[in-house]
Specification:
Elements: H1 9-24, H2 39-78, H3 88-100, H4 111-122, H5 124-137
């Protein structure tokens, strides 16, 4: 018996169709034997090929599921707060400076300007949230 792991999935499907064709043509006219392998041998080989195909598809599905789970985990990690990585004291200090109107992030990026631009596209409430997220992301760590 040959090792089916050497075949790629397309070759396995081709082998399966050839085996099915040979099984259909196994008996010729008047039900006479026309093959060089036994009927049961062909059936066993077909079962082996089908099992190999199923195993590969199962592995592929498991791999796709793992990739999807990794993507979901990545997405969850990306949803962290923009202020993540800053201590509570540092956050408090930044909020106090912002309330006083002092510059707290990168120079030239005014909260009001960012909020107005985002509000035009996403609405006023969401615009403020986007500006706040941008502010926290621009805080030097």
């Amino acid at each position: 018996m040959e090792d089916l792991s050497d075949y790629d999935i397309d070759e396995l499907y081709n082998l399966k169709s050839r085996l099915e064709e040979r099984l259909e043509k196994y008996f010729g006219d008047d039900q006479r034997f026309t093959g060089d392998e036994g009927y049961q041998d062909l059936l066993c080989r077909l079962e082996d090929v089908e099992e190999e195909i199923d195993n590969r598809e199962l592995k592929n599905n498991e791999s796709n599921m793992n990739n999807l789970m990794n993507f979901d985990q990545f997405s969850l990690n990306e949803k962290k707060k923009p202020s993540a990585g800053l201590s509570k004291e540092k956050k408090s200090e930044i909020v106090k400076k912002a309330k006083k109107g002092e510059d707290i992030g990168k120079k030239g990026k005014n909260f009001d300007i960012v909020a107005k631009k985002a509000a035009k596209k996403y609405g006023e409430d969401r615009g403020k949230k986007i500006a706040a997220a941008s502010m926290w992301k621009n805080i030097p760590r």
